[in-house]
Amino acid sequence: MPDPSVSSSKPIRLLLVEDSFAVARELQTLLRGVEGDALVFEHVETLGQALKLLGRGRARARFDCLLVSLRLSDAEGLVAVRRLRTSEPDAAIVVLAAPDDRALALESLRLGAQDVLVNPWLRTADVAQDLQRLIRGAMDSRRSNASRPAEASTQGATADASVASSVFTRDEESAFDLRFQPWARTVDGSIHGIEVTLGSRAAQVSPRELLSAAESRGELDALSRWLLRRVAPLWIEWRRLGIAPPRLALNVAPSELHARNFAASRLALIDELGLRPRDLQIELAEDALIGAAVKAHGELQALRDAGVRVIADNVGRSQVALLALGRLPLDGVKLDIALIQSIRLQERASRAAVRGIVGFCEELGIQCCAVGVEVEPDATVCRELGVPYIQGYWLARPQTSKAMGEWLMRWLPPAPRATPEAPLASV
């Protein structure tokens, strides 16, 4: 089920830090095959050469992604990851690891790397597409989650707040991007739902940062209502065309649940917009959901009673948290992306953790979805471990509404209709 829309018009500037010319040639050949002219590829053999290239002078080179070996001649283990993260804070880092480097590779993720490529994968059948997805996924992850340097934090927060407020003024159409990403059944690839996230066109602001900025300005409720109003006509059109999956997923901040009559007001808006409660799924981060559970239990239950599904996101960091989730009114969980990343390194503990969560969900009769499934081996492992649903770049990248509609038209055969097909709306 490769994603047909992986390519991007924006060139990738990629720096490979690897002392093996054979590996360097193979990586460059593979990436050139799928990226073509959209790739600016540079290779250095040592950490010292990389740091010189990334120096802070006027001629400083900037890269979108760094591919870094854990076995450099002048920097064994995690030294290179630490130094390069400091030198190039905005770039994604993908670690190149040997099979016996699993422990170091896992630690590199905690130090700021976005993903790990295990060397034997360079010889799998679909490695070029897998490698492309992995690198672009790491870049998206870095843009969403990277911590900014201290001197830029104040500017970033101000920019975020400014961007967040613009949606409620005259620049409504140009302020935001909506992105849609499907999830599917693991066994047969049938599409089960689509998650919609909100991003800024005016600055590199992640959905989480944008929600946080809106929350700090007291505009979170208005922003959430705006998003639902933008998505509703599109979803209704998809449903008319017979290509709408069963569920549309929206992220919700815990503070929204604390608002007076949150469930009642959202259900009223859903009805006003012509949506059905059973069309919607709300997702909250595991830790935030547990923290809000005491005050929000009634709101969650009211939404579920009406037909809205409630999902805990980023699940699997703590067994204690998992037990707490078992006492909440939930319809499902999404696994923390770190579990999938560590399973790539054949970590037995992570495989056992996923099996345990799958069993937990089966016992409670709720859904379980693996997030961050970027390459075919990820999907294979999920099938082996019994994970019912998957979401990630291997299935499809986050896309605009127009691209998502076209993707669904290819993926889902439309139901018979009496009227001519109307053009897909674009958010």
Automatic annotation (TrEMBL):
<dbReference type="GO" id="GO:0071111">
    <property type="term" value="F:cyclic-guanylate-specific phosphodiesterase activity"/>
</dbReference>
<feature type="region of interest" description="Disordered">
    <location>
        <begin position="140"/>
        <end position="165"/>
    </location>
</feature>
<dbReference type="InterPro" id="IPR001789">
    <property type="entry name" value="Sig_transdc_resp-reg_receiver"/>
</dbReference>
<dbReference type="InterPro" id="IPR011006">
    <property type="entry name" value="CheY-like_superfamily"/>
</dbReference>
<dbReference type="Pfam" id="PF00072">
    <property type="entry name" value="Response_reg"/>
</dbReference>
<dbReference type="InterPro" id="IPR050706">
    <property type="entry name" value="Cyclic-di-GMP_PDE-like"/>
</dbReference>
<dbReference type="InterPro" id="IPR035919">
    <property type="entry name" value="EAL_sf"/>
</dbReference>
<dbReference type="Pfam" id="PF00563">
    <property type="entry name" value="EAL"/>
</dbReference>
<dbReference type="InterPro" id="IPR001633">
    <property type="entry name" value="EAL_dom"/>
</dbReference>
<feature type="domain" description="Response regulatory">
    <location>
        <begin position="13"/>
        <end position="134"/>
    </location>
</feature>
<feature type="compositionally biased region" description="Polar residues">
    <location>
        <begin position="144"/>
        <end position="165"/>
    </location>
</feature>
<dbReference type="GO" id="GO:0000160">
    <property type="term" value="P:phosphorelay signal transduction system"/>
</dbReference>
<feature type="domain" description="EAL">
    <location>
        <begin position="156"/>
        <end position="412"/>
    </location>
</feature>
<protein>
    <submittedName>
        <fullName>EAL domain-containing protein (Putative c-di-GMP-specific phosphodiesterase class I)</fullName>
    </submittedName>
</protein>
